[in-house]
Structures are given as C-alpha cells and as structure tokens.
Amino acid sequence: MNCYETVFIARQDLTNAQVEVMANAFTQVIKDHKGEVSKTEFCGLRNLAYKIKKNKKGHYVLMNISCPPDGIKEMERQMKLSEDILRHLTVRVESLDPNPSKLMQRTYDDRYRGFGDDQEDVLDERQHADKPSRPRFQANQTSDEGDSV
C-alpha cells in the first residue's frame, strides 16, 4: 500500500468536536477502502496567511494514511464536496513519520523569529551582557570649531 500525508483546514466557526467528527468520517472512508490511518494530529485553530472564503483562521488537521489510491480519491472527493473544508493537500511519501509534526513541535520562541534569523545576535547580547556598553551619546560633545553642542 502507498503512504500519504493529508492536511486539511476546516472553517474557523466549527468547534473542536465537529472537526474531530470530520476527521473520524475521513478515517472511516479510508478504512472502508482497506486502508489505515496511523496518526491524526489536531493542530488547533491557527491564523491563515491570507483570507480563504472570508475566513482568517482555520482548524488544521494532519493525517498519516496507508491506503490504496482509490481510498485517497474517495476521501478527496468528499473533502471537495464539504463546505466546511477550506483547503486540503495530500502528498505521497516514502514512509510515515511516527513523530509529531513540525507544527506540533513549534515552540513559543520560534513564532517570533524572522526569516533567515538564526538568533546569533540574541546569543551575542546574552554573552556580552556582563560587559559595560559604550554610551550612545556623550554629554560633552564638541563641534569642529570647539564650541559645545
């Protein structure tokens, strides 16, 4: 059987229980086609990068699936018909990862890191915190003519 990872985003006005019911319905479709869902992660309500169908947030769900292609086609067909699903993506993978996804491993500090920021500047500030810093403005500055500014 082929291995797949499926992520779908449900509308923001659904409750967590309704999202779980939807995920269980998709799991049942896979089981009906002699497949298996090895992991289902509910990543919670998260902000979207842009509005999708007038929604700013969505419930993210990741599923690891081992199933024949017919089961995936049927599940995707039902996702397309559902008005509660904003987007979905299914990717075929070589093997299923039993570890938590990167969305679930994300820490508080990672949210505030900039693009390409490896936080070396923050580490340098922590290492040099005990050293006195040079003042930015000196009170007795003089201009080129010798007058005090």
The global form is globular
Largest sheet data: 4 strands, antiparallel
The CATH top-level class label of the domain at 9-96: Alpha Beta
Mean pLDDT across all amino acids: 81
Q: Can you identify the CATH superfamily of the domain at 9-96?
A: Ribosomal protein S6/Translation elongation factor EF1B
Approximate strand percentage: 25-35%
Strands, total number: 4
Cα-atom Rg, whole angstroms?
Answer: 26 Å
At the fold tier of CATH, the topology name of the domain at 9-96 is Alpha-Beta Plaits
Spatial order of strands in the largest sheet: 2-3-1-4
In angstroms, what separates the terminal alpha carbons? Answer: 79 Å
Helix content: 25-40%
Following the backbone from N to C, one meets helices and strands in this order, namely EHEEHEHH
Q: Number of DSSP helices?
A: 4
Poorly predicted residue ranges: none
CATH architecture classification name of the domain at 9-96: 2-Layer Sandwich
**What class, by secondary structure content?**
alpha+beta
